[in-house]
Specification:
The complex is a heterodimer of chains A (about 270) and B (about 280).
Chain A (H helix, E strand, L loop, with lengths): L1 E9 L5 E10 L4 E5 L6 H8 L7 E6 L2 E2 L5 H9 L1 E4 L11 H6 L8 H9 L4 H10 L15 H15 L3 E5 L7 H17 L3 E5 L3 H7 L3 E5 L2 E6 L6 H8 L3 H12 L17
Helix pairs in contact in A: 5-6, 9-10
Chain B lengths: L14 H17 L4 H5 L1 H14 L6 H35 L2 H4 L12 H23 L2 H12 L3 H26 L2 H9 L4 H35 L6 H11 L3 H29 L1
Classes of the chains: A alpha/beta (about 270), B mainly alpha (about 280).
Chain lengths: ~270, ~280
């Protein structure tokens, strides 16, 4: 699916956000990315969804170097990648139905897109997607009247309508309460599994990452720190990954105590005291 | 561990700039010949009182009322159609005056335009900005003079004059609104494979429209006053009748006309407040 070689990104006037990231992700694989905030995970996802161009390095998507794509090819490639953001990134003043149907924009002509704003095209499709995320009654609500967790589910419904080959979820549960977090992560995992989609997720919670993903990539200071199966992610590796980031170190201490904020929803964690 | 207190940032408005501004004020005061004595001295106040006495009572004859009413309707119509025309001019030009739609910002991080394309787009932006600046630098009244020459006397040159000047003002304001919308939803729309035009329609405009409406209503309130003046150069409405009344010393009629302006200004303010409450 993805092949990254020496990806580097330097923002104007700043240090390198990513510094030589090389990684391969196969079709249908589920991968969680963990690491302290500011490590470059969001930047990596913006490069993976082709809305940010790396300063150096090669990004190959299904055997094609994306640097060589034309404008139209780039848009077509983007339709195959669905993104869920930490802040839901919806248009608050539009109704939920339009935000969900925006998943179709890459397929729609300009005329269809305009007409749909007047008379939603395929409202049943949007309703089905909302049903899958458990809020069919919100189809005609104004998006900015929904809570953060509801908006996050609207964003997932948009990705369902888009029906991409890859789902990128950038900290999709950092703004929702723990029980909803488990629901959303398992929903995304199950949907991706059923439909054979590749799923890449940035997670602030190591516990969720270890419990739901068969492959964990740790990122620190713009570099890959480890890339392992959860059973081989040791306490020492995590301590190194988060060294100097006080909040995250507390998270690790709680894990070692056996206190699990996500409760029984998560399987026991390998390598940690029960 | 005690950290040193952060250094105080430099003043945003240094002392020398304050001194310069004060000098500018004094110089302008002299340059405009401000003389409170002439206004508030016994002679000045006497003149004002005498003129106000001459205005009363307003001329309420059927003829004067009909004249004021038709003038008021014409002025209202000029302001309304002129404001609509200004939106028609401002909306397309403001798209050119928006850098974030042409060559920089979040929509171009995935694929920055090449040097040739970028130069063309910067030129397009500069041309859009320059056109808007020309439109709004020329005052309504000067536009009215120009259009009276071109299309003759009457309300039509007034409509064109308001449309051109206000188009320049609104175009600048619209452009600033478009550049200021929250970029996060635009990034998400672009990530679905949407074209820039689709991002404009689904992400930028829904965020910008309330402010577009608000600015337009405000300019309509300004335009009703401007429309009342337009007649001084022959572009119809109440102004034309006021000009005649002042020139012929018809003071009672003048007061009727001033009251008519007061009425329609109040009416437009109320209408505008109603629409703002409903739409914004």
């Amino acid at each position: 699916m993805y092949e990254l070689r020496g990806i580097r990104k330097v923002f104007a006037g700043g240090e390198a956000a990513l510094d030589g990231v090389s990684l391969a992700v196969g079709r249908g694989e589920h991968v969680a990315f963990v690491g302290p905030s500011g490590a470059g995970k969001t930047t990596l996802f913006r490069i993976l969804n082709l809305t940010l161009r790396p300063t150096a390095g090669t990004l190959v998507l299904d055997g094609r170097d994306v640097a060589g794509l034309s404008d139209a090819e780039l848009r077509r490639a983007r339709t195959r990648i669905g993104t869920i953001y930490q802040r839901q990134n919806l248009v608050g003043r539009l109704r939920v139905v339009h935000n969900v149907l925006a998943g179709n924009l890459g397929r729609w002509s300009t005329a269809t897109a305009l007409a749909s704003l007047v008379r939603p095209r395929g409202a049943e499709e949007a309703a089905r997607a909302l049903e899958q995320v458990g809020m069919p009654e919100k189809l005609w609500a104004r998006t900015d009247e929904l809570s953060g967790g509801q908006q996050q589910r609207v964003a997932i419904a948009r990705v369902l309508v888009q029906n991409p080959d890859v789902i990128l979820a950038d900290e999709p549960v950092s703004s929702v309460d723990p029980s909803l977090a488990v629901t959303i992560v398992s929903l995304l995992r199950d949907l991706s599994h059923e439909r054979r989609k590749t799923l890449l997720m940035n997670l602030h919670s190591v516990e969720l990452a270890l419990a739901y993903f068969p492959r964990i990539v740790g990122i620190r200071d713009g570099r890959i720190h480890f890339d392992l199966a959860p059973a081989r992610v040791t306490r020492e590796l995590l301590a190194e990954l988060y060294a100097g980031h006080r909040d995250d170190e507390l998270q690790l201490e709680r894990l070692q105590d056996g206190t699990r904020p996500f409760g029984g929803a998560c399987r026991p964690l390998p390598g940690f005291a029960e | 561990m005690a950290r040193p207190a952060p250094a105080r940032p430099a003043r945003a408005f240094p002392l020398w700039a304050g001194a310069g501004f004060a000098a500018l004020l004094v110089w302008s005061w002299h340059g405009t010949g401000v003389d409170p004595a002439a206004l508030f001295g016994p002679e000045g106040l006497g003149q004002i009182a005498a003129y106000v006495r001459k205005l009363f009572p307003p001329d309420l004859s059927a003829h004067a009322l009909r004249d004021a009413a038709s003038g008021a309707v014409e002025t209202f119509a000029i302001s309304l159609i002129g404001s609509l025309l200004s939106v028609g001019i401002a909306a397309p030009l403001s798209l050119l005056a928006t850098r974030t739609l042409l060559y920089r910002g979040i929509l171009f991080e995935g694929r920055p335009p090449g040097p040739g394309a970028r130069a063309r787009r910067v030129a397009l932006y500069a041309a859009g900005k320059a056109t808007l600046r020309v439109l709004r630098t020329i005052p309504e009244i000067v536009w009215a003079l120009i259009f009276v020459f071109m299309v003759g006397l009457g309300p039509f040159p007034g409509v064109l004059a308001l449309g051109f000047h206000t188009g320049g003002v609104l175009g600048k304001l619209f452009g600033e609104v478009l550049e200021d919308v929250d970029p996060a939803p635009l990034e998400a729309l672009q990530a679905t494979g949407a074209t820039r035009f689709q991002v404009l329609v689904y992400g930028v405009l829904p965020q910008a429209l309330p402010q577009f409406v608000s600015y337009t209503l405000y300019r309509w309130e300004v335009n009703i006053r401007a429309a009342a003046m337009m007649g001084f150069v022959g572009a119809g409405g109440l102004g034309q009748r006021i000009h005649v009344a002042i020139s012929l010393f018809h003071e009672h009629q003048l007061l009727t006309l001033i009251l008519a302006i007061y009425l329609i200004v109040t009416l437009v303010d109320a209408l505008s407040a109603y629409l703002r409450a409903r739409l914004v």
